[in-house]
From TrEMBL:
CDD domains: MATE_eukaryotic. One of its GO terms (biological process) is xenobiotic detoxification by transmembrane export across the plasma membrane. GO terms for cellular component: membrane. It holds the Pfam family MatE. Its main location: membrane. This is Protein DETOXIFICATION. It is a multi-pass membrane protein. One of its GO terms (molecular function) is xenobiotic transmembrane transporter activity. Residues 1-33 are annotated as: Disordered.
Length: 508
């Protein structure tokens, strides 16, 4: 039986959860959708690919665009804080950059552990085991909050730790003040990231975009008042940033708990969320290691810049380039989220061909966008630095780093999407090993040799970072190409059954 474009466009769009009673629930493969198109033998191959692309592109952009906005706003909140700090003074910019880099330790940890929720909730939603999602959310929040306690103690002693790392005394002191104002964010991360993954697994991303946008506007307004009217300096900037994160947390929590849309995935607080905490911790540990090793990589390079000649200049130019790179990276992370959602949902639903098709569609689209970003970056290379600072020396150093920055942007168009596929499939532990080898045995050592031994300074450090990222990207491309997606479907089914067979099950 042939499949028309009109039929395809009306179906397979991951529908928002409506009342899925036993009589109303349908398996995704019963719909005429992406899997049906890709397996329709009566259609020519090119026609199947065209119809599949029509479906997948709609799904992809419907998920990716709001996710991109959310991640851009989250990154933009840190960047706007740096901008405000930079307009106080160059030393304040260096301190805020150093403090932000240090705080990425806990940011990466919380975001990584939250990725376990993304895998489990995404596959459970695809398999229509809706009542499991709320327990996963609560259990993850508890585990992340417990992990946040020792991290709070660690950041309390940030000043002596920065001195032990060899950072300049003045910058370390100001950076520790900035970090002190960020400490309450640790527990905001614990709630925010798990709530985001809970929503994303159900393809609900637009409300988070509205909430994040409102929080960013609030932060900019309060930061302006804090700096220009009240004159609070770095501590004021940090406290405003923390308040903005907690505004997002409260808004998302109210949206989930008070919205009838989630009455089948959020059934209220449950004592079952305290069961299997250690098992969930072990599961999320692989996710945390994968994300942390990746996020800490660039931040370690910023810390190394503090050991170069003229550390203030090196820190300033590298932090500005990192800020620009992170904006581009957030676009790819939006596709990362979309790829993870699509892959986990399709694997949970048993649609192996759809999972494969979604993977390569998201990767291709993100790569094309990254090429356009790199070209725009090179065209504006002489002006980018002045957005962050009025120091001409810093702006010139940023301009000289732009070719390396453009190469990084292109690689970032591929690698994050493949990492999203890894999260959707549950490959976090494997990717963690890849990250260790590529980043910490190749990227950082090469960067140190080029930066210090060959005296290439910031250029050398950045070149080493590119080398590690390139190696990781090639490995992930190869592994994804060689994946047996039918086996991945079976693994997803066993993973859900394993959690369901234990007393973690929610079905009465």
């Amino acid at each position: 039986m042939g499949v028309s474009v009109e039929t395809v466009e009306r179906t397979d769009l991951r529908r928002p959860l409506v009342d899925p009673t036993d009589s109303e629930r349908k398996r995704p493969e019963e719909d005429v959708g992406l899997e049906s198109v890709l397996t329709e033998s009566s259609l020519p191959y090119r026609r199947r690919m065209y119809l599949g692309a029509c479906i997948e592109m709609k799904l992809l952009f419907r998920l990716a665009l709001p996710a991109i906005f959310v991640y851009l706003v989250n990154s933009g909140m840190n960047i706007s804080a740096r901008i405000f700090a930079g307009h106080i003074g160059s030393q304040e910019l260096a301190a805020a950059s150093l403090g932000t880099s240090c705080f990425f330790l806990v940011y990466g940890l919380m975001l990584g552990m939250g990725s376990a929720v993304e895998t489990l909730c995404g596959q459970a939603y695809g398999a229509q085991r809706y009542d499991m999602l709320g327990i996963y959310l609560q259990r993850a929040t508890i585990v992340l909050a417990l992990v946040g306690v020792p991290m709070t103690l660690l950041y309390t002693f940030s000043y002596p730790i920065l001195l032990l790392l060899g950072e300049p005394k003045a910058v370390s002191y100001m950076g520790s003040i900035y970090i002190a104002g960020l400490i309450p964010q640790i527990f905001a991360y614990a709630v925010n990231f798990t709530a985001q993954k809970f929503l994303q697994a159900q393809s609900v991303v637009i409300p988070s975009a509205y909430i994040s946008g409102a929080a960013l506007l609030l932060q900019i307004l309060l930061s302006w008042i804090t700096i220009t009217v009240m004159g609070f300096g770095l501590m004021g900037i940090a406290c405003v940033l923390t308040i903005s994160w907690w505004v997002m947390v409260v808004a998302q929590t109210l949206y989930i708990t008070c919205n009838q849309r989630f009455r089948h995935t959020w059934t209220g607080l449950s004592s079952k969320s305290f069961q299997g905490l250690w098992s969930f911790f072990k599961l999320s540990a692989g996710s945390a290691v994968m994300i942390c090793l990746e996020m800490w990589y660039s931040q370690i390079l910023v810390l190394l810049a503090g050991l170069l000649e003229d550390p203030a200049l090196s820190l300033d130019c590298l932090s500005i380039c990192m800020s620009v790179s992170s904006l581009s990276f957030m676009v790819s992370v939006g596709f990362n989220a979309a790829a993870s959602i699509r892959t986990s949902n399709e694997l949970g639903a048993g649609n192996s061909k759809s999972a494969l098709f979604s993977t390569w569609t998201a990767t291709s689209v993100s790569f094309v966008i990254s090429i356009a970003e790199a070209l725009a970056l090179m065209a504006a290379r002489d002006y980018i630095g002045y957005i962050f600072t009025s120091d001409s020396d810093v702006a010139k150093a940023v301009s000289e780093l732009c070719p390396l920055l453009a190469a990084t942007v292109i690689l970032n168009g591929i690698q994050p999407v493949l990492s999203g596929v890894a999260v959707g499939c549950g490959w976090q532990t494997f990717v963690a090993y890849v990250n260790i080898g590529c980043y910490y045995f190749v990227g950082i050592p090469v960067g140190c040799v080029l930066g210090f031994t060959f005296n290439l300074q910031a250029k050398g450090i950045w070149t080493g970072m590119i080398g590690g990222t390139l190696m990781q990207t090639l490995i992930l491309l190869y592994v994804t190409y060689r994946t047996d997606w039918d086996k991945e479907v079976e693994k997803a089914r066993k993973r859900l059954d394993m959690w369901d067979d234990k007393k973690d099950t929610l079905q009465n």
